[in-house]
Amino acid sequence: MNQADKVYLDLCEYILTHGTKKEDRTGTGTISIFGHQLRFNLQEGFPLLTTKRVPFRLVATELLWFLKGDTNLRYLLENNNHIWDEWGFQKWVESKEYQGPDMTNFGLRSQSDDEFNKVYQEQLKLYQEKVVTDDDFAKEYGDLGNVYGKQWRSWEGADGQVYDQIQYIIDEIKRNPDSRRLLCNAWSASELENQQLPPCHYAFQFYVNDGKLSCMFNMRSNDVFLGLPFNIASYALLTHLIAHECSLDVGELIYTGADVHIYSNHVKQIQTQLEREPRVLPTIKLNPEKESIFEFEWRDLELVGYDPHPAIKAPVAV
Fold first, then answer.
1. DSSP state at residue 200
2. Is 180 annotated as ligand-binding?
3. Active site residue 12
4. pLDDT digits over 50-102, tens only?
5. Which of 31, 167, 201, 272 is 20 to 30 A from 13 in CA distance terms?
6. Among the three residues 86, 112, 144, which one is the final residue of a domain in this structure?
């Protein structure tokens, strides 16, 4: 059994066995634990889970969106990435400009009411089309506020200065690899109200040892079934990209979660995944012609040898 799937599945079993039932912001309900850590040796393969298909293209385009400093959904939609759609859609349907059918609690209602779901899908499609084709609409309702990309690349300090945290990390690794300040923080207390979704993975830090780059990322809140597999793959990819630019090999990826939970409507999906036998992990190849991580597009990233079990669908809690 590969170690990536093993530690993930062990976490799922632990939550189901020892977790506490809790209410949550979305009204869905969770089974939750507080405080957990997972470790992945990136030398053993790229930690994209094999017990269900995790769409690497979506992981890659989301990360590249962050690295561009972008906060508007247009880039994601142009790359057929819809993992953030619901949060932008929520911003539109809760606005005074929206004149369509009532979309109150659309996330929960669409799961239990087939007729409503048809109407919801029509409105969601209309929203997606307007973000891609209408510049004014995209500026107003496609932007998610000062989320990850803004914080990573254009952090605004109390001194009024703007800081590119990713560029700082790269520069610091090159000049002082033993630094204990190779850290990026996405949690800006003064800007939480200007974000459609406050950062879940709120900070990460790099560590260089023996020519290898390791990364630890921290999460305040984590949807284990839908979110965590993406988060693991995303930070593994980020580590590979920064190691590539800094002429380092990859070391270890460490995940630290606070409120680590399984949504109540994901339990059956988790149980299905627990029944599957893990397969060999894939590897990742980066386009050697690209020197800067900011030059990469998702087609410059090649996933080799990925042979997972089929995808398992589950609703997103908004």
1. S
2. yes
3. no
4. 999 999 999 999 999 999 999 999 999 999 999 999 999 999 999 999 999 99
5. 201
6. 144
